[in-house]
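It is worth pausing here to work through a concrete case rather than discussing structure prediction in the abstract. The textbook approach is simple: state the sequence, then state the predicted structure, then interpret. We follow exactly that order.
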Amino acid sequence: MGECNYLYGNFSTKKRVTVLKEMLEFSGIEEKRLKASWVSSAEAPELVHEFDTFIEELRNLGPSPLKSDYRRELA
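Step two, the predicted structure:
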């Protein structure tokens, strides 16, 4: 982070993600369900790796706890 022309945006995003993770935890949702990574547009393999890793982490966490609550409300 910080090696890009959008330095202010990077730092703002980092702050926002930190706050959002705290909000998720407070709401009973694992903070691991939100992730931000800084990958250059020239690093396509790294981006693919980030996606694959995050998808695997989400699979290991299982369905969102909100998903079952939402279905109950519809019933």
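Step three, interpretation. The longest helix spans residues 7-26. Residues 32 and 40 are 22 Å apart (CA to CA).
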